Amino acid sequence: MDVEKWKGALQKAFSKEKGMKGLILLGICGIALIYLSTLFGSGKEKEPAPGNETAACTADEYEKKLEREIARVVSAITGETEPAVMVTLKSGSRYVYAVEEKGASRQEAAGESSEEKETAYVILKNAEGAQQALPVTEIQPRIKGVVIVSRYAGDLETREKLTEAVKTALDISSARICVTGSG
Question: Is 83 part of a structural domain of the chain?
Fold first, then answer.
């Protein structure tokens, strides 16, 4: 029953010319408030957009991260508190950038065809006006070798477990892994 009451009141208000002017005025005020709120902002600093974050790390950071992870695995296998682990990389990270190719082909009178291609990187411009190429993917550095120094490496079974764990975790051959005892 309340719905019918409200419906009747709204119809009565909109049927009058005065009510319609008030509704239009109210709408204009709402739009003005929304516009003003965008001008003054909320006082908070803008957070960077999720796409602007850089997840890339340097080759040294990548090496250290791998060393920590392998040391954690070695500790889990041997029970050592601080095993020595060293990872070496063949090269740093490489990026593959988005490219845009424009081409045109022509058919010549002699029956020969020629093709022209123009390749350009896709360039993005950030809010500050700086430009950079659009990275499509990052190729992680290739691992050159891993050295593990553990006081439990004298045990053949432990040495084999460590080699297999590193071989599996990093997807490298056992020829690139050296497990040796300390002292």
Answer: yes
Average pLDDT, rounded, for the chain:
79
Max intra-chain CA distance, the chain? 98
Other Cβ atoms closer than 10 A to 130? 8
Mean pLDDT on 142-159: 91
DSSP 102-129: EEEEEE-TTS-EEEEEEEEE-EEE-TTS
pLDDT at 119 over 70: yes
In whole angstroms, give the CA distance from residue 148 to residue 82. 11
Q: For residue 170, tell me if it sits in a domain.
A: yes
Which amino acid is located at 174 in the chain?
S
CA distance 34 to 32: 5
- Number of Cβ within a 10 Å radius of residue 74: 26
* pTM exceeds cut of 0.70: no
Q: Of the ranges 3-17, 25-39, 46-60, which one carries the lowest mean pLDDT score?
A: 46-60
Does residue 46 form part of some domain?
no
- Structural domain boundaries, residue 107: 95-135
